[in-house]
Amino acid sequence: SIDWEDYGVSEVLQVEDGAEALRKATIHRPEIVITDIRMHKLNGIEFAERLVAACPDSKLLFISGYMDVAYLKSAIRLAAVDFVEKPIKLPE
Predict the structure, then answer these.
(1) In a domain, 8, yes or no
(2) Average pLDDT over every residue of 59-88
């Protein structure tokens, strides 16, 4: 739904679960990571904690249908750029 090239993004990778996301991130070292909170194999917070250790320059954006205070606090602690609630409103 997003024309990434309009934002200067030339490569977009998509994965199926948190463990695969971590493997790909450590190889590709992304500038921007958009992650869900609830994922299979490795949840978004665990993934983000490991990502920050492996790729400290990556910027995090969390999406979730669960506006849980603990998730929000974890996102803040991990210096997330934003926390977007599902369903996503594309103008946001």
Answers:
(1) no
(2) 75
